[in-house]
Amino acid sequence: MFVAAIQDNASDGDTVVNVNLTTSSTDSTWNRLNLRVPVTVIDQSQTFPNSDPYVTLGFDNGTITEGNAGTQTRTLRATLDTVATSTVTINLTDNATCSASNGSDFTYPASITIPAGQSEGADNVTINGDTNTEENEIACIDVASITNGIEDGTQQARLTIRNDEPVPPPTNLTGTTPANTQQVNLTWTVSPESLFPFNHVIY
Fold it and tell me: Which among 3, 66, 129, 180 is least surrounded, fewest beta carbons within 10 Å?
């Protein structure tokens, strides 16, 4: 007897199928023994992982102005090089070496899911507004792991968060002490011209 496996492109792991053999006989000494034979169907996607789709990750728009309050979002998208035959799950992690901080500057989804029959999935990264005077920051999202897919090289989605508070202007302070006096002449130069308020305290 032959058992034939049906070909598919699904990455669903090895499967064990029990084949039941029911016997009969006209022999008076027949013991009515029925046989059960396990047959293992090996999923070749486990042996040849290139049968899984390749995954890329990126933002639809890679820049955003921070804002002074509330939140804004940018779409983070995972794309396959072919239509998924099984549900693909991309687990995400933030890269702490980038300047933006997860939690205070932004938050991101734990994963992106691409259903079978689709070639992409998306979710939102949320940016928190504030009134802090700071430089532009970069949020970086990496791929932690993928189920039923393969990371295409090393994927990292980067989002530039633009600061919208005025930056204090640089100042140059010079002074001279005339002879035989305790008076100090101070001169400071502000460049470039700015409406940003600043204070100088002299003791």
Answer: 180
DSSP H or E stretch at residue 80:
strand 71-80
Q: Are 107 and 125 in contact (CB under 8 A)?
A: yes
| Predicted TM-score (pTM) of this structure | 0.60
**What's the rounded Cα separation, in Å, for the pair 76 and 90?**
12
All structural domains of the chain with their residue ranges: 15-48, 52-162
Distance of alpha carbon 120 from alpha carbon 55, whole angstroms: 9
Give CA–CA dist 112/127, Å, rounded.
18
Contact 125, 153 (CB under 8 A): no
For the chain, what percentages of helix, strand and coil (3-state, to nearest 5) are there?
5, 45, 55
Is the domain spanning 52-162 CATH 3.40.50.720? The answer is: no
